[in-house]
Model the fold of this input.
Amino acid sequence: MQKLTAQRQAILDMINRFDKHWDADEIAYALKEEGISIGIATVYRGLAALADQGLIESIQLADKKRYERADKSHHDHLVCTGCGSIEEFCEPQIESLQDKVAEERGFKIEGHQLLLFGLCKTCKAEES
Amino acid sequence: MQKLTAQRQAILDMINRFDKHWDADEIAYALKEEGISIGIATVYRGLAALADQGLIESIQLADKKRYERADKSHHDHLVCTGCGSIEEFCEPQIESLQDKVAEERGFKIEGHQLLLFGLCKTCKAEES
DNA sequence: ATAACGAATGATAATCACTATCGATACAAT
DNA sequence: ATTGTATCGATAGTGATTATCATTCGTTAT
Ligand SMILES: [Mn+2]
Ligand SMILES: [Mn+2]
Ligand SMILES: [Zn+2]
Ligand SMILES: [Zn+2]
Done:
């Protein structure tokens, strides 16, 4: 029985309003800017609850978790080590190969995360 | 220039002696068991230095980094959410699809990490 | 309407992996 | 021997996240 409280609705609305990957602090700050002040612990709990219900998606980066809207089809991420930008890509062949690998080993997949690290087009051009 | 000191050699030897994925504390504890006591900060620095030189490999899990020997061919990981065990797999087709995706976007890949989460064969069987 | 119960909130303390600091050491080059 | 550079180890600090706990909110039972 997870409740969709006013605070959680505000967090969800904010995430759905933009197409980006938020961390908890960014959400709290953006809400405060709009006059909606939510305790940071509540933001963390709200994000966890929303992700739990599938209302938002999350990716675990090395240092922190980032959240995004869930109304996009499944995708994985390219993370630029130069500027920190995050691009998205969808490759169904990779997804089915993952399923094949898991099945071969009797492993029941609950989720996966594929991160490609490197330099985005812009940062690559700036390299010398 | 990074030195391969006695402490770092001991860490490297330990990692090369077993085929597992170690965190920093496990390394420090295993060494102490053998009478080799190394400061925890030195263990962290040693692991970073060894990984930097390609003498060991690392994977970033949600909570912590884990290290393994580097004398195996590249592979990715299946992480059991039941017992925490880590299996390995190698799927060249996935690797080449990653390269294709990156190339299409002008993204220069420096590395990647693919984690499959779920239940290993044993834990799946125990699920009622 | 009121009492009662479960869940959520928010301020804050605590946790935990990891990094920074800094005086002491090791070791190689001059 | 002296200098210089990298490392060591004890420990303080950092930053994201979670735990605690008194208070508040919503819903259901009376
Ligand atoms: Mn995304
Ligand atoms: Mn491995
Ligand atoms: Zn970039
Ligand atoms: Zn398992």
About this structure: Strands of chain B lie at 56-60, 65-69, 76-80, 86-89, 108-119.
